[in-house]
Amino acid sequence: MSAAKPKQLNPFLKLVLDFGPLLLFFFANSYRGIFFATAAFMVAILIALAIQYVMLKRLPVLPIVTAGIVLVFGALTLWLHNDTFIKVKPTIIYTMFGVILFAGLATGRPLLEAVLEGAFHLTEEGWKILTWRWALFFFALAVLNEIVWRTVSTDTWVAFKTFGFLPLTLIFALAQAPVFLRHQVKEKS
Question: How much is the pTM?
Answer without folding.
Answer: 0.82
